[in-house]
Amino acid sequence: MAMPGQLMFARRLGPMARLLIWLLVGASCVAIDTRYHALDGLRSGFSLVLQPVRAIMRTPLDIAAELGGFFVRHRLLQKERDALMTERARLLVDVNTAQELVRENAELRTLLQLQSRPGQRVVHAALLYRGHDWFAQRITLDQGGGAGLRRGLPVVDASGLVGQVSRVYPGSSEVMLVSSPGQLTPVLVERTGQRGLVAGNGRSQMDLRYMPAQTDIRPGDRLLTSGIDRLYPAGIPVARVSRVSRSQASPYLRVECLPLAGLDRSRAVLVLIADPQVTQP
């Protein structure tokens, strides 16, 4: 039953009529906003309300972009690190090469100064290799009989006496080091002039033998060839005293010495050859 004031047979608007009404309302809003900007406040309100939603929707894209940038930067940093490490290795090689050249030049300059000795000539030689037997205390040079070498000739480097030629081949020669067992070298103490005999012990060391207990000799004294054997020229540095000890059971001192020559590091040496025809100007 219809209520008072209500039409009993009222009809509802159809879909087409509602669509036309909404189109008319929308067109009116567009016209009013275009002419009077009446909806600017509404748009600002909606923009403010939707700002968090837009930020949330952009978050996955921002994270993806940040991760991509991180991996790209990481890859670039790895490449830069590898390049820097390669450059560092190359510079270290250059520095080591330069230091080695400086050392060799200093050694060669010192060797050249030894050529001023009267009554002798020298043959420049380079180390080929050390003997296969470490305890044999031998080295092999790149000069031999073709350069005038013969057995017994002294060999020196920039610091002192290396040894003497023990075997000669046409293009190479072997040198017995002064530290070789059984190798005896007549010397004198530079400070006092006391004569003695240095013997190798096969351990890159030497002993000064038969020094009486009252001999004035101290650690640090330098030993030079005395020239008494007419094999080694006088005045070549041989060793430096490292330790002096006394024993009540022996009338002689125990004097330990270290060779001055670079027995395990010299690359360039001189072989001294006595030449009576060479006279001092």
Question: Could you characterize what this model shows?
Answer:
The protein is α+β, with helices and mostly antiparallel strands and 281 residues long. The chain is rod-shaped, with a radius of gyration of 49 Å. A 6-stranded antiparallel barrel has the order 1-2-5-4-3-12. A 6-stranded antiparallel beta barrel has the order 6-7-8-11-10-9. The chain contains 2 helices and 12 strands, in the order H-H-E-E-E-E-E-E-E-E-E-E-E-E. Strand 10 and strand 11 form a beta hairpin. The protein has 2 domains: 17-116; 119-274, Rod shape-determining protein MreC, domain 1 (Thrombin, subunit H). The model has no long low-confidence stretch (mean pLDDT 80).
How far apart the termini lie comes to 154 Å
Task: Outline the low-pLDDT stretches.
Answer: none
Mean pLDDT: 80
CATH architecture field of the largest domain:
Beta Barrel
Helix/strand structural class: alpha+beta
Strand order of the largest sheet: 1-2-5-4-3-12
Radius of gyration: 49 Å
Shape field: rod-shaped
Summed up:
The protein is an alpha+beta fold.
Structural features:
single chain; 281 residues; alpha+beta; Thrombin, subunit H; six-stranded antiparallel barrel; 2 helices; 12 strands; 34% helix
Indicate the topology.
Blueprint: H1 15-36, H2 40-113, E1 120-130, E2 138-141, E3 154-156, E4 161-168, E5 173-177, E6 184-189, E7 195-200, E8 206-209, E9 222-225, E10 237-245, E11 254-259, E12 268-274
Antiparallel strand pairs: 1-2, 1-12, 2-5, 3-4, 3-12, 4-5, 6-7, 6-9, 7-8, 8-11, 9-10, 10-11
